[in-house]
Amino acid sequence: MGKFAKRRDASLRTMHRAMRKLCLAPLRRGVKASGADRYVKRYRSRDFALSLIWYFVLGLHSLRELHLRLQADPMFTELNSMRGISNAQLANLLHDRPPALWQPLLAVLLARVGPVRALLPQAVWAVDATFFTLGCRLLARMLGRALQPENAGVKLSVVLDLGSLALRSFHLSIGSGHDAEHSEQLLPAHRDITGILLVFDRGYRKYQFFRDLIGRGADFITRACATDCFRAVASMLLDAAHPEIVCDELGYLGGSRQEPIFLRRIVKRCADGSELVFLTTVIDLSAADIALTYARRWDIESFFRWLKRHVHLQRPLGYRSLQAAEHTILAALVVYLLARLLAETTVDPDTGRVVVHVGPALQLLRARLHAKPTARERRALGFP
User: Fold this and answer.
1) Where along the chain do its domains lie?
2) Which residues, 6 or more positions from 263, have their beta carbon under 8 angstroms from its beta carbon?
3) pLDDT at residue 6 above 50?
4) Predicted TM-score (pTM) above 0.90
5) 230: nearest Cα among 253, 210, 256
6) What are the angstrom distances between the C-alpha of 249 and each of 111, 136, 194, 240?
């Protein structure tokens, strides 16, 4: 029995050392840049951040569970340097430490997670946002005004590469306003997006956003709205092999007060008789391929579901504080990127090629807590 217990402790220490080696230096830079440890007496911000990472890796549900784990597992407490902390102190750390300490670590992980497979003929990025509800009483007091639906929580906006399922950029904001308001933070002007095909829903319907993407050399596919003013000037030849495509035409989008935008309009009839109308700048793909590419946008919804179900992010920790919510969401994104790094080591035994499975990636990471990591997994986390 002692032999197996020793092996389990060694494997947990090995995995923890691998994660610390990858995360510790960026966290130190973030703590120093944000001044998170300026008035700290006992619990350092880097140890607090590591405990949050392990919170999601272990699949815990609340701060109380994390506190009980720190009390019940002396080795886990020793590895995280959080001995003697109370449940109230954990909540205070979430509220007091600046969320900016996560930025260097997220930048390092975003740079390391690269394209592994090409599922699509060109780079296709999906843009979307999800909403996390916060507590009413303290949020209203923090904002200094009455609580309204537009400021009732935190919105996470994401750019996801549909080819490699890698996170390209993200942005956190207060409220449930228009999604296109945060497009400049998601796709800053200094970032080269030439040749990228962006897929987004009607939440990003903003003509100036369309013009900016075209001016920067990017293509896009989106859904049209009933109020769009589209003037057709030419019709594309329909493919008899795809009778669901009932309209394919070229024309101009926009009224007389603004410069019109030259786009392609495609109408697809669904099995229930409803119609889907797409607007795109892509000319060289068939209408059926454009509709199929837009359907791949559902992968970003699966990503949000992964965050909310698999790592239990339905409601952020300390959900009555904005800073606590930001810490929770950023830590969950770190765990997602760590799981992606490990998932890149999965090899298909039939083809011998690396296959990325984002769904069971967290299960893979949890399974390695009590088993010795393979050499490929150790290299993926930067551990020699």
Assistant:
1) 2-107+317-380, 205-287
2) 210, 230, 250, 251, 252, 253, 279, 280, 281
3) no
4) no
5) 253
6) 40, 48, 25, 16
